Amino acid sequence: xxxxxxxxxxxxxxxxxxxxxxxxxxxxxxxxxxxxxxxxxxxxxxxxxxxxxxxxxxxxxxxxxxxxxxxxxxxxxxxxxxxxxxxxxxxxxxxxxxxxxxxxxxxxxxxxxxxxxxxxxxxxxxxxxxxxxxxxxxxxxxxxxxxxxx
Length: 150
Prior knowledge:
Elements: E1 4-8, H1 14-22, H2 25-30, H3 37-47, E2 52-59, E3 62-73, H4 76-79, E4 81-90, H5 99-113, E5 118-121, H6 128-136
Parallel strand pairs: 4-5
Antiparallel strand pairs: 1-2, 2-3, 3-4
């Protein structure tokens, strides 16, 4: 993985990121790679918020992975700051290469650098392979999550 770089996402990376978001049964139903405008607007909002870190993993000029890390200050847990890892995607050609582990390690290191006391993430109930992956990295399935579509 010597040629791997993890860096902030740019507008040029958006087509590759959206392609990875759409490259599974769940993402295929909710993403629209043919219309990048909402994604570009979202990147602009993310880039202007210092608590949001949308990163890509690249090999040369090729985007091969992505994730979003959100830093959340709070009052609970004695005023603890936590981080949330979301939208972890690895290009199909790179799955099983250790890249996913490297991206999560980056997120944990950045969370420590940001003085977070807790790193959390959610994963869709159907993503059983992802659940095993996160458990191998030391995460525990400690909560039940709920969503309300608006």
